[in-house]
Amino acid sequence: MRPYVVVNIAMSADGKISTRERRQVRISGTQDFTRVDQLKAGCDAIMVGIGTVLADDPSLTVKSEKCLNYRRKQGWDDHPLRVVVDSSGATPPDASILHKGKGKRVVAVSKRADPIKISLLEKKATILVAGKDEVDLIVLMDKLGNLGIHRIMVEGGGTLIAGLMKAGLVNEIYTFIGNIIIGGKDAPTITDGEGFIKESEFTRLTLLEARRIDNGILLHWKVNGPEPKQD
Ligand code: NAP
């Protein structure tokens, strides 16, 4: 079965997720950090795009002892399966995501990935091939489902989220909106990519919750998908 996909992302009051130089910015506070840790701890896998790995070098590990103990009690690995979406196999072999914390990793590549890079990554991760030139996200999700992954958290960035939205693969979105303005027309947003043109293609959402948290607001959305096509 295809996994249930939850996107979690922090953005500034003006809708940016980092600076125009793609430099990581601290947008949320400790309360939101705890919420994200809990969300992560409840997932089987956590996914990011190669852009995020290269920009931020995240480890995507579960941080608090409470959350680690919760996972251990379930008989799960300390950290969810970490998945990098990386068509060409550009994940640096010394990336934190491949080294920090116990647990399994997947690097999802396309058929165009360099075999030499793949042979280096294979030492640290399972390689899943999906798609010809870029990772086919539907094929990838099906492969992850076959590995027993039921619930995936996606931590960004905007290009990967756009691809997942376009493919109709996102079920829920959490957006934390922090009290800063980052600015810049080229600064990434939560859904970059090409964008939709026709209104009928827009992704429709239902607001499940709006909650004041730290110095910002947390919005929790359910994704309805595009409007049904008119005959
Ligand atoms: P990204 O979304 O992390 O990764 C995008 C890359 O994934 C693509 O360029 C593409 O590279 C690869 N990819 C492969 N198949 C794909 C497909 N079917 N659809 C979409 N992407 C596919 O990169 P990004 O948009 O540059 O975002 C990185 C920025 O987001 C950084 O500045 C980071 O700090 C920020 N960020 C912010 C937050 C937050 O919560 N505020 C969280 C995460 C990231 P290849 O073609 O080379 O495979």
Task: Describe this protein's structure.
The protein has 231 residues and is an alpha/beta fold. The chain is 26% helix and 25% strand. It has helices at residues 30-41, 50-56, 65-74, 96-99, 115-121, 137-146, 158-166, and strands at residues 4-11, 45-49, 81-85, 105-109, 126-129, 151-154, 172-177, 204-213, 216-225. The protein starts with a strand and ends in a 6-residue tail after the last strand. The mean pLDDT is 96. Bound molecules: NADP nicotinamide-adenine-dinucleotide phosphate. Residues 9-10, 17-18, 22, 24, 27, 48-52, 55-56, 85-88, 90, 134-135, 137, 155-160, 163, 188, 192 line the site of NADP nicotinamide-adenine-dinucleotide phosphate (NAP).
Largest sheet: number of strands, sense, barrel closure: 9 strands, mixed
CATH architectural name: 3-Layer(aba) Sandwich
Strand content: 15-25%
Which descriptor suits the 3D outline? globular
**Helical percentage:** 25-40%
Distinct small molecules bound, one entry per kind: NADP nicotinamide-adenine-dinucleotide phosphate
Q: What is the straight-line distance between the termini?
A: 30 Å
CATH topology: Dihydrofolate Reductase, subunit A
Structural class: alpha/beta
The secondary-structure element order is EHEHHEHEHEHEHEEE
Tally of separate helices = 7
**In total, how many domains does the architecture comprise?**
1
What is the level 1 CATH name? Alpha Beta
In which order are the strands of the major sheet placed?
Answer: 5-4-3-2-6-1-7-9-8
Rg, please? Answer: 17 Å
Low-confidence stretches: none
**How many strand elements?**
9
Q: Can you tell me the CATH superfamily?
A: Dihydrofolate Reductase, subunit A
